[in-house]
Amino acid sequence: MRPISRFGVLLLSVFVTCLSLVSQTSRPKEEKPVFENEFVKAFQVTLKKGEKLPPHESGDRLIYSLSAYSLKYIWADRSTIEKRTAGDLHFHPSGVHAEENAGPATVSFLIVERTATPLPAVEISGEDMAKMSPYNTKVLFDRAMAKVFEVTLPPRDAVAMHLGLPRLVYGLTAYDLKIKTPDGKEARAGGKKGSFRWEGASIHSVGNSTNATAKVVVFSFKK
Q1: Which of 165, 214, 221, 222 is deepest in the core (most CB within 10 A)?
Q2: How far is it, in rounded angstroms, from Cα 172 to Cα 190?
């Protein structure tokens, strides 16, 4: 058998390095795309007990817990175990990392990331929904990137007129809502449980005229 030349060794080394980089930058198959437009991407992850995600790179991201879980995050210089309850919302910075389900049950969560496309300029102003209707709107997260709300509307309840920034709406239940703008125009906005909908900035109120409670999470982006 002929020995491998120096060029062959170099070529093999480059191939292995490229393969390693691809494995760290490619989305793992467990991160299933559930929504994408020019401004945001959303993924749903489900991991069985002991299941792992290989090292991969992600951008700055919001993570919404669909179930309670204990998840081990493994970075180049450290590892941490985070325990979350269903309905938690937290932020993770960009970087290469791996994940492992460190709990006894299957876990499920959403990942929401901004793309590099700038959001349209917002030319209107006003108070947000939590300030206008604090009794049915809960703030889950508020930082420079985004403010995230959980809205629960019983039958014939409403969120008062407010400013909605560019936003991604996720249905925790099925919903059929009435949207009203300051000029008196009305429109319907609805979706199934687990659905996503993107909306641009606007001043509006949101009413539930059905006989079922509607519950949504609103990812409202500041930049």
Answers
A1: 214
A2: 12
